[in-house]
Each structure stands twice: as structure tokens, then as C-alpha cells.
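REQUEST FORM: STRUCTURE PREDICTION
Request ID: SP-0412
Submitted by: Lab K.M.
Chain count: 1
Length (residues): 182
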Amino acid sequence: MIKLYGGARSRASIVRWYLEELKIPYEFILLDMSTGEHLQPDFLKLNPFGKVPTIVDGDFALFESGAILLYLNQKYGGKELSIEQQAILSQWTLFGNSTLATGIFVEASRAKELPKLMAPLNELLSKHAYILGDEFSVADIAVGSILIYIPLMLKLDLAAYPAIVNYIQALSNRPACKVGMS
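STATUS: Completed
RESULT:
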């Protein structure tokens, strides 16, 4: 059984959402970050940086939410993917974790970056239900989870991006999202 280590209000929720989508049995281990559970020697053996999320799958430990998503997709996603398809999933996962997250959550650059990121995303999502077309994928976890944080944490006005608003709502209504992102 996979063990998922996370903290309250951490990116472990993203991984948890995907585990729920895949219907993989897992144990969620909530670390009390305020008391330093993530800095204890046993956890530092799994993640020397003392960060969450971290998973353990058998004897294999992995940290960084994007890397975990890609690993889970490759091992448990159920589809044989070409190198090009894997690269596209990596592209969107890295985009979500770095470009999109930075553009949204770094306040100093938000006003400049947000329109550059949201306008093309809105255009894409006005043509398709999901990032890669009409089928939900790990790319939607990576990008969608960051977008879902906007109304939860920032209360930004997204009226200019109706397709993104609809996308956030559709993802938020997925049963696995409700469990994972809670």
C-alpha cells in the first residue's frame, strides 16, 4: 500500500486527489509540521529536505508533487504512453507546478503574469473540457489543482476567464477532488 505523507494545507492534497482518481489504496500520514514531525530522522531518510508531499510505494520513496503525479500516472495510470505523450504530461505538470503556480502565487509578478497565463488557458478550455482534450488526465490534476486554489486562497476576480471558472467548478465537483482537496 502506498503511504502518502502530508501536512495540513499542503500540496499533498494534489497527490491525494490523484490517488483517489486512480482508486489506489493508500495510507495518508498527516505530519504535524508545527511540531517538526517532518524534520525527524525517519522522515528525513525519505525526504532529506523535510518537505511534503512524499510517498513510499514499497521500497521506493519519492518527493515533489509533480514527480509523484508523473510516477503514479506511469505506474498506475493504466495506459501505455509514447515518449511524446509522456513529455506532454510532463510539460503540463511542470507548467502547473512552476509557471502557473509562480504566476498566480507570487504577488510581485501576479498582475503582469496572470493575464499572460489565464488568457491562453481560457482559450484552450473554451474548446475542450480538459487540458488535453475531452479526456481527464494527470495534466488536469497538475493544472487544475493550482487553479482550484485561486478561489480558496486568493479570491481573484476570474470573470474575464469564464472557461477557467467552468473548469474549476467541473473539477471541484469530481468526487475524488472533493476527497483529495479537502
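NOTES: The beta strands are 2-7, 26-31, 54-57, 60-63.
Reviewed by: T.R.
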